[in-house]
């Protein structure tokens, strides 16, 4: 089992005790889950991926609350499991944890509900939408097959569960407020507990959360993400922000400015790549120009990230599709972009 960061304790100004539990969602990739004590019934926020050692590490983290922090809570005491968003590194262990808790209620935002209640359907539909996008991005057939295989590899161990609670931003739950922050994921919510913000993957300490185009999935896309940043920016009095990955953030408003600046730089890099080509080019070609050293699954992530920024520039009138005759004539050809 890999070495993990320690379990950490935080407390909101409303007296809620927040324990941050690390799990290795995928090899060398740490996700944080949270146990909330003092906000109604004992509550678990996110469940890790359910892949590899993730489930065992989550149980060990919960056991540490009693052994290392003196809390009189066990896994069977957890009566509520809330999922911050429908990405597998945050919900993949939900069925396992439902069993371990003896039937805790499960909550998620309604836009991500079917990711949990009809998981098998969601995988099929999302895979189809991804394939259409990759064809339109200009990915060669042999690489497309490999990318689709990698996309589905880690998703076969998950099964559907029943959802009991909708995380509605208009409804407070035991002192917790939920802010719908689409962009990185359609139904992602940030959770406000007093002066603590659980930001999930919306705001991270070091990296800018991954973006994918809304042409693949509604409520993703850079435009939605930037609007969601504004929503959080308007919330006063956030002392500490705890994300789904990386370190706590003690200056979240400054961090939001840094994330926004990072996306502005990426948008300019997309324009630079098109200028350098001196002719209309595809998303695949732009991605190779911007990220020439990516391999394996990182190729897919780069293709989505670039696609989100190309889509945003196109939506805002900065780019044009330059091969309209081909688009009109063929079933799903690659789109070639030029600067307006």
Can you describe what's shown?
There is one protein chain. By secondary structure, the chain is an alpha/beta fold. The protein has two domains: 8-126 and 153-259, 4-Layer Sandwich (Metallo-beta-lactamase, Chain A); 261-339, Orthogonal Bundle (Arc Repressor Mutant, subunit A), CATH 1.10.10.10. Helices cover 40% and strands 17% of the residues. It has eleven helices and 13 strands. It has helices at 54-69, 88-91, 94-100, 113-117, 119-137, 141-153, 222-233, 252-277, 283-290, 297-315, 324-329; strands at residues 8-11, 17-26, 29-37, 43-45, 80-82, 105-108, 165-166, 177-180, 189-193, 196-200, 240-243, 319-321, 337-339. It has a seven-stranded mixed sheet with strand order 1-2-3-4-5-6-7, with helices on one face. Strand 3 (29-37) and strand 4 (43-45) form a beta hairpin. Helix 5 runs antiparallel to helix 6 and helix 9 (283-290) crosses helix 10 (297-315). The radius of gyration is 21 Å and the shape is globular. The mean pLDDT is 96.
Give the amount of beta strand, in percent.
15-25%
Could you give the order of the helices and strands? Answer: EEEEHEHHEHHHEEEEHEHHHEHE
What is the CATH homology-level superfamily of the largest domain?
A: Ribonuclease Z/Hydroxyacylglutathione hydrolase-like
Share in helix: 25-40%
Widest sheet, order of strands: 1-2-3-4-5-6-7
Most strands sheet = 7 strands, mixed
What is the overall shape?
globular
What is the count of distinct domains?
2
Specify the CATH class of the largest domain: Alpha Beta
Secondary-structure class: alpha/beta
Low-confidence stretches: none
Beta-strand segment tally: 13
Mean pLDDT: 96
In the CATH hierarchy, the third-tier topology of the largest domain is known as: Metallo-beta-lactamase, Chain A
Distance between the termini: 53 Å
Known CATH architecture of the largest domain? 4-Layer Sandwich
Radius of gyration: 21 Å
Tally of DSSP helical segments: 11
